[in-house]
Amino acid sequence: YIALGDIYGMYGKPKEAIQAYEKAISYEQSNADAMSMLGLMFFKEGRLNESSEITRKAIELQPGLMKAQSLLGLIYFKLGRFQDAIDANLKVLSMRPSDIGAHRNLVILYEKVGSRDKAIKHLETVIQYAPPQEKRQLEHLIAKRGVFFNHGYYVRNNSRDGMLTFHDGKLIVNPYFDEVLKYMDHRRDDGD
User: Fold this and answer.
1) What is the mean pLDDT of residues 183-189?
2) How many Å apart are CA 174 and CA 6, to the nearest integer?
3) pLDDT tens across 123-169, in order?
4) For all residues of the chain together, what is the average pLDDT?
5) 115-122: long-range contacts, CB 8 A cutoff, minimum separation 24
6) How much is the average pLDDT of 8-32?
C-alpha cells in the first residue's frame, strides 16, 4: 500500500494516497515511513493539525527520519509556530549539518522572529553549500540587489549604500543598519 500511496501522491491524487497510506498503517502501526508520507498528504490537503500529529508520531517511532523532521518544520511554519519550526530545522541540521534546505528555511524563520544575525549566518551557509550556479546567483543578488531582512526592508541597492556587504564569504552588516530601520519604520508609520 505504501507503493500505491507513492504513485497516487506522484500523480497529484492526495486523497487516494491518504487512503493507501492509512491502509498501510492499519497493517503495520509502527511504519514511520508510511506515517511520514501520510503527514505529507495531509499537508498537501491543508489538514495541518492531522499532518502535525501523524508526522510527530513518525518521528517518535524513528527519530532519525529526516524527511519527517523537515516536514514538521514546514507544518509549524504554516501554522505560524516559528520557534517550533526553527527547532525542527535545527534538528535536521543536527542529523545532517550540510542540509541546504534546512539552512534556507532557517534564513526565513530567523528573519521572521527578528534574529538577523542568525539569519545571516545561515545565509552564509546556504552560499557555502549551494551548487555553483546557485552560489553565483546568490552572490550576485547580494552584490547587486540586496536581500530582505527585518520584515522586508531593502538594505542594499544598486547605489551600493554599504548596509550589507559580502566579503571573503561572509555577510557584513553595517552597524548603522538599525538606525536606518528605525527611520524607515518612522516613515512607514507616518504614511510616507
Assistant:
1) 58
2) 49
3) 888 888 878 877 777 766 666 545 444 434 334 334 444 555 556 66
4) 81
5) 116/149, 116/150, 116/173, 117/173, 119/149, 120/149, 120/171, 120/173
6) 93
Q: In one letter, which amino acid is 50?
A: E
**Which residues, at least 6 apart from 185, have a Cβ–Cβ distance to it below 8 Å?**
none
Q: For residue 113, what is the DSSP state? A: T
User: In whole angstroms, what is the distance from residue 34 CA to residue 46 CA?
Assistant: 18
Greatest Cα-to-Cα distance within the chain, rounded to the nearest angstrom: 63
Q: What is the pLDDT of residues 45-83, one digit of tens each?
A: 999 999 999 999 999 999 999 999 999 999 999 999 999
Burial of 98 (0-12, 13-18, 19+ CB in 10 A): exposed
Closest-CA residue to 142 (of 152, 127, 128, 122): 127
Closest CA to 30 of 67, 60, 69, 66: 60
Residue with cell 516559528: 82
DSSP E strands in 24-176: the ranges are 148-149, 153-154, 164-167, 170-173
